[in-house]
Amino acid sequence: MLEKHQIALLYAGGRQHPLKNQNALNRWNKEFIELEMVATAEPMFIAGHTAPDQPQILQRIARRIQREWNRYDGFIVTMDYAHVLYNANLLAFMLGRLSKPIVISTISHDDLATIAAGAKYPDIGLKASIVNATQMVTAQAAGSFIAFGSSIIPVTHALVSEDKDHPGIYPASSAHGSVGGGYIDFGIQLLENQHALERVKPEIYVAYGERVLYQVLTAGDIKDLQVEKKTRGLILDSRHISLPVSAARLLPKKVPTLVLTSAAVLLYTNGRVTKITGLTPDCAAAKFTWLSGQRSVLAKLKNAMDQDFIGEHLRRVKPVKRAKSIKKRR
Amino acid sequence: MRVYIHDEKTGGAILRACREAGVSVLTPEKIRKRKRLPEGVAFFLDQVDLLIIEITKPNPLMHFILAQAILADKPTLCLYAKNQSPRLLLKYIRKKATPKPVKTFSYMETSLAEAVNHFIGMHDPLRQEHDEAVSIKYTLRLSPRVDRYLTWRSEKQKMNKADFIRELLARKAKEDRKYRDPLME
After folding, report:
1. Do A179 and A62 share a structural domain?
2. B60 touching A, CB under 8 A?
3. Domain count, chain A
4. Which of A19, A198, A299, B152 is buried most, with the most CB atoms less than 10 Å from its CB?
5. Which domain holds residue A315?
6. C-beta atoms of A138 and B37 within 8 A
7. Interval A103-141: pLDDT, tens
């Protein structure tokens, strides 16, 4: 009898036609014989979709993972492709440093081409991603990863390609070499620098900046930007447009603003601009949102962005212990 | 044509059969030696056209590769030694939802090479073109009665006798399920 690892499969999107509830997920999972061949998976319905303005779904995922921690060898979380890296990074900050694998699964390269052609994509890409993700559990890796194509990438080191001919998710080139994860080549091939900790339950920090507004800019948006009084942080994603330097004058003065451009990540606080280095754009945005929910950090946001909480920095930075650096807000 | 071979049982017999069939092969040993996926390969199964896996004693890696092959509709030949069927894995492979590209075959030492050769031939486009060429000469003697029928029939269909016979045999070959798929169980 083949021994199979126990996996929790948390569904939070990824299908063209979203599943609506636990019963639908159970029926879908029952037909998923390919997953049954490689693992014993317990399906758990979280939500039909994941969107960047719904971090409460990520909170639900984090709490569920913590609750079920001892029952499973690893966790696979499905998500929609849109904003997957932002959501995956925010979940990673909520969960902290892990001693088991959490792997995000989403659609495939072929599905992206299908979407670009205006057609509907089948489930095969998502299912292949899930089956690939099980290999990180088999390998007993530790951390938060995303499975895309044949790559298994630490979420904090993953980038979305803007190349229309080669869309998808790829590992960021790292200043200090391989940072864990691996690739699938007729079996899992792990890269170096896998970290493994004593197998303890994670201490989760699910608070996030509830009044942080995430806005994807299109041309002309910046002039019409309206920020509500209650907004406590702003993320402007301008990676798909060319934002003029003069746009900085239009930013709200009293609201910390993180601007993502195709060339850099810029933090505007108290009238000053700081270039944020060593983080991928989605990681920086997620970190900004997460830090905005932690007590007493806002005033020192710039310093906190430089600190390393979960191994997110692309350059070598000494890690901090979360309990010491931030106070947990329940 | 490139074939992935996963064989921990036959002592290289499958590899030899593939080499004789003239295909290039990818093995776990070659994969272990390299440090990364080849350039331009988005998904690992894209590197090969076919898979041949010896499944008599399945392990987790075989389960994983087969699971992805089934999802990808990749032509796969699963071989197992006669009277040593891996029941659980066969149950997964033969479930109704499984597509036809995945075949299973119970082999003996004497039938292994032919099974491999046939599987490759079914999917090798070069062989198919070669197979269509009218290149083999027959001398066929007929009785006068059969010849009268052949004459009448070919006139009715406005084709020469040789073409009529070729078409008749080609149609029979297409319709004969057991011939087309000797791996069918």
Report:
1. yes
2. yes
3. 2
4. A19
5. 212-325
6. no
7. 999 999 989 989 988 999 999 999 999 999 999 988 888
